[in-house]
Amino acid sequence: MPGEATGPTGQKLTVSETKNINPAGLKVTVTGTGYDVTKGIYLAVCRVPATPGEQPSPCLGGSDFTGGSGSTHWISNNPPAYGQGLVKKFTVGADGKGSFTLELTVKAKDSGADCTQVRCAVVTRADHTHISDREQDVIVPVTFSSGNGGEPTPEVPAGTVRHQAVRTLTPAVGAAQHMAADPAAGRLYVASDDGSRRQLTTYDTKTGWITGTPVELPAPVSALALDAPARSLHLALGDRIATYDTRTGTLADNKAKLSGHVHLLAAHPAGGTVYAAVQPARSVTVLATGRNPSTVWRQIGKPAVHPFPVAGLAVDTAARRAYTTYVGPNTSTTLSFHNVLTAIDGRTGRTVGTPLSLGTTALGSMGVTVDPVSRTGYVANLAAGTVFAVDLRANRVTGTLQAGSNPKALAYDGGSGTLYAASTTAPVVTAVDPAGKREKEELTAGDRPSGLALDPGTQSVFVVAEGKVTQLQRRVSPTQTAAPKAVTAVAGKQAVFTASATGTPAPTTGWEVSSDGSAWLPVAGASGPRLAFTAAKAHHGNRYRAVFSNSVGSLRSAPAVLKVTAAPKPPPGGPEPQSVGGTGGTTPDSTGGSSGTGGTTTGGTDATGGTVGGSSYGTEGSSSNGSGTGGGDGGGGGSLASTGTSTLGLTAIAAALAATGTVTTLYALRRRRTL
To answer: pLDDT tens digits, residue range 432-442?
Structure first.
């Protein structure tokens, strides 16, 4: 997809391709018009400036005046003496303005810049003779595909799930401490601290770019809680709570003053309440926050005091309750502990029901999260490396899940049914399937991850570890939805195969061909769900299969056989018959469907002088859950001539297929003597 941009003085920069560029490199054509010919410029691939007025830098190719890297050009009509022979010249138009058209190699990274970590663009900027001149800055952003050099990824079972790190977010000030995600707005809020300065930074969850200006904070942040409908992000600042208005970007301090240090926060958006765990009071205070950031807060009831410090806090939005965990020594014996889950009513601020005992292991009730749909609570048993599953309606433990080593922070994604558990002693987050009661995957995300946040919209889990935030995306390998079906085609007319699959990210489709069903080679240049080419006698009996591929892995369809029939000869003195190519239908995996048909070959005059009516169209295959295919074309170009031999060599066939405008295969195709 091409892109263009207009510069400060009316310059126009156009790039022939800007989206999903192969990371290994792509040669693009760049055209510039309207430039001041008295000023030299560089044309390059550079980092997009983070702030207005900043120079686009660093750039691919580094400081390359010669253009030898292919990723930069120096363009000037009046270079210094040493630049003679190194520069490209502007073409001067009737208006005195300069223009150029050049090829530029755009790739994801080299020793000069790494566009996998920063946003990059094809840019022009002032050359080194007037380096501070920002009027020459014209910026056309580019993006890169996941890229596998055009080759399919390794085969995996259909629907294989893997999490892949897509980016790491590093705050400009200090280390990331806490975060909160707003999936509806596509925003991630990160609080960071360097010991003397504290900032709140907002990121776009799709791109990882900073949005707005980071906000300076008056005190260290110990917890965050988001009330998205009220556009309020609550921040625990020591013994008080502040609120950040996510719409205006303003901070209101001292929304509530507590009796001690606030170390945990949880918000109930629909209920307009915030729960604050306070030390050393060992209590949880419920606060009514209202529907917008300007509301005056009020305390609901008295603080709910616990026997021991609160270790975990989560909200059950379905019941308008908060659940807390605590752990303390058993007074009856020195070898056991109390591990307890307690409910707090958001309407009264009081504890309700009977506290649930979770066994007597050390540190057996730490982090907690809630699935409000199934009313299931999950409690981390740090010492045992497990997570308790709790039926909150019945107030009873229903199972124990293995969850890596020493889990504490938890997060549950209801969309995928995945529980994430962060280890306190290893650089991993474990993805757990609660329904199957099994560990699904260990995700690497930095040493001793301390916080988790989810964005179902981008299928992402964000992890705080080592002072940074790592974004991991849940991705799924291709699952076939329609397989290619056998095709019968007339020689010289089109043969069409179709296939489709789903996956995350959406898979690409390539094609492979075999003459015997055992040795397979790619069909060069074939991409997309539809494979169409002019059938030849030499193709008879070939098998074709689709290869669906994404960043998780690849899946190959079952092969479909091509049958090529000879075009009938016209009767002596009669008109040329009208022959039509065939098309293959699609075969849905489970629901069935109708196949396409071969074209008809009718028309002309028979020996008795009667005419035979002719049809010039093949029929389409159809599928109840797949995609149909186009019918055979009235004409499909030339066909391969008969050679009188049973096998055509690679060179001859490749040349013949190329000459007819069809897709070229990369191996010798066999043809049967039966034709």
So the answer is: 999 988 888 99
Domain C-terminal end among 122, 142, 162: 142
User: In this structure, are 134 and 178 located in the same domain?
Assistant: no
What is the per-residue pLDDT for 84? 87
Count the domains in the chain. 3
HEC profile for 190-244? EEEECCCCEEEEEEECCCCCECCCCEECCCCCCEEEEECCCCEEEEEECCEEEEE
pLDDT tens string 626-638 = 333 333 333 333 3
Distance, CA of 242 to CA of 250 (rounded, Å): 11
- If you search the block for the tokens 């400009």, which residue do you land on? 172
Angle at 212 between CA 211 and CA 214, to 5 degrees: 105
267 shares a domain with 136: no
DSSP E strands, 515-663: 521-527, 530-534, 543-549, 554-556, 560-565, 578-579, 582-583, 586-588, 593-594, 601-602, 622-623
Domain hosting residue 120, numbered range: 3-142
Six-digit token string for 143: 């993006």
Query: Does residue 50 form part of some domain?
Result: yes
DSSP strand pairing (451-455 vs 438-444): unpaired
User: Domain containing 126 — which CATH number?
Assistant: 2.60.40.230
Mean of pLDDT values over 81-108 = 92
Task: Indicate whether 505 and 613 sit together in one domain.
Answer: yes
Q: Check whether residue 13 and residue 76 sit in a common domain.
A: yes
pLDDT on residue 657: 34
In a domain, 520, yes or no: yes
The domain that contains 236 carries what CATH number? 2.130.10.10
**Which of 279, 305, 331 is a domain's end point?**
305
Task: Say whether both 522 and 570 belong to one domain.
Answer: yes
* Predicted pLDDT of residue 248: 93
Asked whether the beta carbons of 385 and 363 are under 8 A apart, the reply is no
Pair 492, 634 in one domain: yes
Are residue 181 and residue 279 in the same domain, yes or no? yes
Q: Are 394 and 343 spatial neighbours (Cβ–Cβ below 8 Å)?
A: no
SS3 635: coil
CATH number of the domain encompassing residue 507: 2.60.40.10
Bond before 218 cis per omega within 30 degrees: no
Distances (CA, A) of 127 to 90, 134, 135: 14, 10, 12
Residue 524's pLDDT band (cuts 50, 70, 90): low
Cis peptide before 49 (omega within 30 of 0): no
Instruction: Tell me whether residue 389 is in a domain.
Output: no
The pLDDT score that the predictor gives to residue 484 is: 97
Average pLDDT over residues 185-190: 96
What type of residue is 192? Answer: S
Q: What's the Cα-to-Cα distance from 610 to each of 140, 229, 571, 604, 657, rounded to whole Å?
A: 66, 79, 12, 9, 38
| Alpha carbon distance 506, 496 (integer Å) | 22
483, 602: one domain: yes
Which has the closest alpha carbon to 588: 544, 630, 562, 623? 623
DSSP E strand boundaries for 330-427: 337-345, 351-357, 368-371, 376-381, 386-391, 396-402, 407-413, 418-423
Whether 369 maps to a domain, the answer reads no
Q: What is the pLDDT of residues 601-623, one digit of tens each?
A: 333 333 333 333 333 333 333 33
Query: Where is average pLDDT lowest: 141-145, 185-189, 665-669?
Result: 665-669
- Percent of the chain residues past pLDDT 90, beyond the cut: 63
β-pair type (232-237, 273-279): unpaired
Query: What does the alpha-carbon distance between residue 90 and residue 33 come to, in Å, rounded to a whole number?
Result: 9
> Is 165's pLDDT higher than 90?
yes
The residue among 289, 282, 284, 288 whose CA lies nearest residue 350 is 284
Distances (CA, A) of 360 to 333, 553, 641: 10, 44, 83
Q: How far apart are CA 311 and CA 189, in angstroms?
A: 23
- What is the reported pLDDT for 281? 94
